[in-house]
Amino acid sequence: MSGEWGFLSDVAVPFDGQNEFCPDLAVIPAAEVAKNLSAYAPDLIELAVEVVSPSSVRNDYEIKNKAYAARGIPHYLIFDPYKAHCVTLWNPGPEGYLGRDVIPYGQTVVVESGIGKLSVETAELPVDPGARP
After folding, report:
1. For 130, left (φ over 0), alpha (ψ -120 to 50), or beta?
2. What number of H helices and E strands is found in the chain?
3. Could you read off the pLDDT of 53-82 as tens digits, one per residue?
4. pLDDT attached to residue 11
């Protein structure tokens, strides 16, 4: 990833009057990150990442899938330690993402995006002891 892009973590992203999300990780232009704001527009996000927790399953897989896609966020990754996989979503539409791949932990997650190629090795990611592969 070039120096033109930076990361946000757990920073408010207001989507509309009813929804404000705080992605676990979001990639936005570095110039915007440098502003150190308390909230950022969803239109800035090139890639959003969520890590599933027991209380966030529905939010991460359903609510954010639709909200992120409806706002045109090009790529959304869901890392799920309870299912030991990563879901990559792309091609946003009004009802959710049209493209979807499920990559089991142990394999490399590769995302080709407008900011370049992103690769994440998943072999060492934490997995819940009761995870089903």
Report:
1. alpha
2. 3, 10
3. 999 999 999 999 999 999 999 999 999 999
4. 85
Is the confidence at residue 23, as pLDDT, over 90? yes
Burial string for 34-61 (b: 16+ CB within 10 Å, else e) reads eeeeeebebebbbbbbbbbeeebeeebe
User: Which of 15, 13, 73 shows the shortest CA–CA distance to 46?
Assistant: 73
d(CA 48, CA 83): 19
pLDDT of residue 131: 73
How far apart CA 76 and CA 50 sit, in angstroms, is 8
Residue 83: the pLDDT is 95
Of 79, 85, 88, which Cα lies nearest the Cα of 106? Answer: 85
Give the residue among 115, 107, 108 at the shortest CA–CA distance from 90: 115
CA atoms within 13 A on the CB side of 101: 13
